[in-house]
Amino acid sequence: MWIHYSKKPIKKLKYIKPGRDDELLPNGFWVATPDEVNYLGDPTKDLKYRVVLDFSKLYVFDSAKSIEKFYKKYRYKRGKYPETDDPDWKYIDSFPINYTKVAKDYAGVIATRKIKGRKKWLFFNVAFGYKAGVIWDPIVIKELYLSSV
């Protein structure tokens, strides 16, 4: 089960563009597991929704290998940002992700578990270091209901 917090009641789900690729986290409908949800909103003020997902159109982070594969395909290469042009730039594995490209291939991305040994991927740690995910296309949201608990 996944949780989403919203300041307003959700009447209709619609496609959300990931936003600018140079931002650390993409725009979208963010979800997390109940034990990881506190950074998504204020449980004392926001509406809490339970979310059931169809994982068939999501990119799932479930191992270090899945992160590495994702990084190789979707991270920006040298030259996209000025600091990456330095051949000695030490954060080669923390380049921003091209979420616009990811959103063409997947309805969202989700980390289904915390992954040990992920310190290599600095950018990933900040963006998806939790059991959480972001949805762009609501086609993968099978059920969404307001929860009182």
Care to describe what's here?
The chain has 3 helices and 7 strands. The radius of gyration is 16 Å and the shape is globular. The chain has one domain (2-147). The chain has 149 residues and is an alpha+beta fold. The strands form 2 sheets. A 4-stranded mixed sheet has the order 2-6-5-4. Strands 1-3-7 form a 3-stranded antiparallel sheet, with no helix packed on it.
Structure described in brief:
With 149 residues, the chain is an alpha+beta fold.
Provide the descriptors you would attach to this structure in a database record.
alpha+beta; three-stranded antiparallel sheet; single chain; 3 helices; 149 residues; four-stranded mixed sheet; globular
Looking at the structure, what is the overall shape? globular
What series of H and E elements makes up the topology? EEEEHHEHEE
Number of DSSP helices?
A: 3
Strand content: 15-25%
Supply the helix-strand structural class: alpha+beta
CA-CA gap between termini: 13 Å
The chain-level mean pLDDT equals: 79
Kindly state the number of beta strands. 7
- Oligomerization state of this entry? single chain
Using only C-alpha atoms, the radius of gyration works out to 16 Å
Which sheet architecture does the biggest sheet show?
4 strands, mixed
Helix content: 10-25%
Uncertain segments are none
Strand order of the largest sheet: 2-6-5-4
Number of domains: 1
